[in-house]
Amino acid sequence: MRSLFSIALVLLVVMMVTAEASMKKKEKGKEPKAEVECSEWQYGKCVPNSGDCGAGIREATCSEQTKKTKCKVPCNWKRDFGADCKYKFGRWSECDTTTGTRNRSGTLKKALFNVQCQMSITVSKPCTPKTPKPKNGEKKKGKGKDN
Questions:
Q1: To 5 degrees, how large is the angle CA 128–CA 72–CA 101?
Q2: By the 8 A CB rule, do 42 and 63 touch?
Q3: Which of 26, 35, 37, 82 shows a CA-CA span of 20 to 30 A to 100?
């Protein structure tokens, strides 16, 4: 019984020493903030890590301070103006048969990270052929059972 008590006491002392050492290590890693918090950060464009879209890094500067933050560049049609410019879009136009595209315009709703955005933009997409929808009484032919 005495040996069990001795082992428990030794384990308790070892755990306390380990915990105290790790606390000192954490405090040592923290550097005091000597610089004043900056209120006017200037953010750069999001630069993808590889390719022309996906995860990337945005650099921000304020006075002599610089920091890097994670960001994403969209991999769809929004990549042209970036994810930092938010637009309110209208309806798609009718199909232009000469170009084979449809257009719609958007006006700037919000600019994130103080980036420079165009006040209005126009985007286009290819026209898609309309497929007739089945009428209410008609059933679509498929692989199901006929009852």
A1: 15
A2: no
A3: 82
